[in-house]
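User: I'm curious whether this sequence folds into something compact or stays loose and floppy. Could you predict its structure so I can see for myself?
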Amino acid sequence: MTDQIENFGHRNIQPLVSIIVLNCNGSNWLPKCFAAIQSQTILDQIETILVDNNSSDDSVVVGRRLLVDFPCARIVRNSKNLGFCEGNNSGARVASGRYLFFLNNDTWMEPDCMEQLIAGTEKLHAVASTPYVLNYPDNSFQDFGFYGFDVFGLPSPSSPAAASREIFIPGGCAYLIRTDVFNLVGMFDADFFIYSDDADLAWRLTIAGYKAAGIFEAKLHHRGAAGVNPAGGIETVEFRTTDKKRFLTNRNALLTLLKNGQHLLLILVIPLVFLFFVESLVGSLILRRASFIRVSFWNAVVDCWRMREKIHEHRSAAAQFRRRSDFWMLKNFRFRLNRWFEIKRIFHFGLPQVDGK
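Assistant: Here's the prediction. I'll summarize afterward.
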């Protein structure tokens, strides 16, 4: 799937961290993202990898121009759009760093972000972490990972903090993980393609006995949903989604529980299916389009059934590295509901715009 790898700078150094920037037709986001990497206080310990998922714009040309002066960099060109999961995996396979940092292209880091992130992660004896994520144009709070899971088994969102802390799920826009642990628990699940991938990976590293953290001192700015919700440039101005996004989000949330729940937590599949049915039904009524409930709910459930053999394989693999039971995992249960964030977005932007694709 990987057509070509281009190298820049020196390959005889052993980087502390490999920053993997996944891109598909996002050339407009790359200059600020890479300028921020180049300004990092530990640049001499960073390997920068641009993974291009078969862009049709000038992303590769822009990437070459931006990376030519980096001390250690690569461009990985994939022959097709492999999605978030396998696209990032393709970058991880050629990475040399002790840590992997999966970074969205619609981000920019403050100069000491990487230094603080790694130092804070090691201080808290964690193997994975996320920085304190602020909105792209200013210093207003956006995200600090996820603190646990709610009654539906969905990630329970974070709230503004004043210090580093243990968390359950590092956010997918800026996900640091030790390379050996990433390989041990099976990398990103390529079948997910995109969405809920950060939660699935975090479930696996947690049941394997490891800890994740949010590092307050490491600051990063993120636009968010730039691909599916591009209007507004650097600021989000509307709540927009697609049929395909809802399908993948719902299916992958179910897969996360089915793959990683040991026994007790599999019960959460029942309220989760009910939640998705109600949401899809309401969405169909609002949109006056029956296809929405078919794609976002029915197809998601049917696809999980179709993947039952793969689910069994994943559960068998997880049993080999599992160190924590479902009863231990209950310490991550939170009453803060995942959907509260979407309710706030509806109040702010109005009902979501749903593209039927």
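Summary: The radius of gyration is 20 Å. The chain has two domains: 2-222, 240-355.
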